[in-house]
Design brief:
- The radius of gyration is 28 Å and the shape is elongated.
- The chain has 195 residues and is α+β, with helices and mostly antiparallel strands.
- The chain starts with a helix and ends in a 9-residue tail after the last strand.
- Strand 3 (126-135) and strand 4 (140-148) form a beta hairpin.
- Helix 4 runs antiparallel to helix 5.
- It has five helices and five strands, in the order αααββαββαβ.
- It has helices spanning 2-31, 52-56, 64-87, 109-121, 154-172; strands spanning 94-97, 105-108, 126-135, 140-148, 180-186.
- The protein has a three-stranded mixed beta sheet with strand order 3-4-5, covered by helices on one side.
Length: 195
Amino acid sequence: MRTVLRIVNRVLLALVGLVLLALGGSVLAVGLGAPSPSWWIHRGRDDVLLTAAERNRWRDAGWWWPVVLAALAVLLLLALWWLVAVLRRRRLAEVLVDTGDGEGAVLRGRALEEVLADEARHLDGVDRPHVHLTGRRTAPEARVRLSVEPHVDPGDALHGFSTRALAHARDSAGLASLPAEVRLRGVRHRAERVS
């Protein structure tokens, strides 16, 4: 489901971006002196978005312009919040490892993800594991997605992952705990003929 949402998000962003780029480019072109079609909202270089009559239409209503400005400010804040949420790195770049001498070392997050995925790949019946580290450098958390083949008990696969791969990663990084959210999914396969 997340993949579908990600695709819809990207398609909508691309469409909105193209529309805004076309509108902004055309307004800029008309402002620089390019001829405009008869149906376009701007007639020429000296044309304004709101005429004096349109600006003065709500002059008697003292609430109009503060409401318009507040709505635009809210839209701007929502757009900035969304931009920060999209651009924010969700992956943990590094893990701080306690070496016992008071100094500490830094372990790349991708390296720990690859080791966890490689150990999970060696478990019986586990196919295409995906591991992402989130959280803080001192308290990482793992998000794991395991595809399990039909002949494997999901409980056994989860137990094997938590006692082998997760325990090895936690011990080798010197972490007190390494919480993990593990999602299991069955591998799709063709129906077998029974005779």
